[in-house]
Amino acid sequence: AIHVYAALACAALLLNTAGKLILARRIYLNFRFIAAPDRKQAVQIFDDHNTALQMAEDCVLDTPVIAYQTRTEFLSRFLHNSYDADPSDRSARMMAPVSFLCSLAVCLVTLILTKDAEQAVTAFAAAACVSIPFTGTLSAGLPMRRLSKIGSRCGAMIVGYPAVEQFSAVNAVMVDAKDLFPRGTVILNGIKTFAGQRIDQAILDATALMCAVGGPLSDLFDQIIKSRHDILPKIEQPVYEDDKGITGWVSGRRILVGSRSLMEAHSIEPPSRDYEAKYIQGGQRVIYLASGGDLVAMFILSYTSDRRRSLELRRMEDNGISLIVRTCDPNITPALLAECFGLEEQSIRVLPERLGSVYVELTVSPREETPALLATKGRPTAMMRMLTACVRQRGNISIAVALQSVSVVLGLLLVGFLTFYSGLRQLGTSSLLFYELFWTAAVLFVPKLRKP
After folding, report:
1. Euclidean distance between the first and final Cα of the chain, in Å?
2. What percent of the chain lies above the pLDDT cut of 90?
3. Distances from the Cα of 77 to the Cαs of 141, 149, 352, 393, in angstroms?
4. Are the beta carbons of 308 and 179 closer than 8 angstroms?
5. Is 409 exposed, middle or buried (0-12, 13-18, 19+ CB in 10 A)?
6. What's the pTM value of the predicted model, to 2 decimals?
7. What is the DSSP letter of 38?
């Protein structure tokens, strides 16, 4: 029997060695990501609690934990975070001495009851064997390996369990509207001019203004002038007025790009709502352009969703992660975003200018050094995908480690019961093998039922 127990212990050692090899492979893949010449963006947690409460107002019920990504020059503490302890390590540190003491107790009690040293040693070997966590390193290693595979497919990297622990608590993601509506997703359907105004110079002025503040409309106007930035005039004092639009000065002329509310606020009479309604059928939106106090044109726009972004945004929402958006486009509202991407309007917050400027300050220039936890190659969809995967895989890892602990405790109880009441003859080789195979399969299979 002792030889059988020794063989099972060797099998456990091999399984745990496989877990270490999986860890080494994961570190290698992450190192390749870090060593690649591509620009890196590190995912960060916004750490100003009071401002976070204002940013997440009405879209996050609990204490807000807001994630965003920003460029970084160097990802630090890579090896430290890669080898940091995960729940299976912490569980093993606690169970190893407890299991040894319990096995020793079984041995001593057996010796006292039977006066047979050989049977006492056999009881000790049996108890020690069933208290070995066969899937010790695999219970966390396999879910982490799956996370790494997801990251490699979408252009991201996650380093160690500390990243999962930190980012699984995220309940809101902060992005720029340009991340949701990249080039080509805001479509110009038509232009209506007013009062015989010259539109060519006004469009140059508007393009310069939009390029100064960024956002989806900057790409739209950029396409109109075919990216000829050398002909753009200099913009002075660009200002975004909440829910209205943008104002700025060019050569003494005030340029306005925004909604009818912006025109009315600056004493410019927009066309009637009936006239406007003729052009906003089928979900289209309008933007007005005024120059020097005169209404110049009305742009008829369509906002389209990107399939990948829609998928990731809905996946985030399903996992309790809200969306916070910084924009300079008055058309981008929670209602528009909910319509475009199939989301609940209550889970979306569009930041006012004073809070949007905080996001701009966080992301305008790269950081010299950022801890190597979660990083992407810049795609916002990669950040979204990895955050939802972290939320789900933390639960899967917890389930696997809990099942592993249950197998050890039940195994010790089983060996103790059989030793004290009916003898170890009832615990045959096939029974012990079946027991270990059952719990190994449970630990490896059950977490796979919940896909990251």
Report:
1. 42
2. 38
3. 20, 21, 36, 23
4. no
5. middle
6. 0.89
7. S
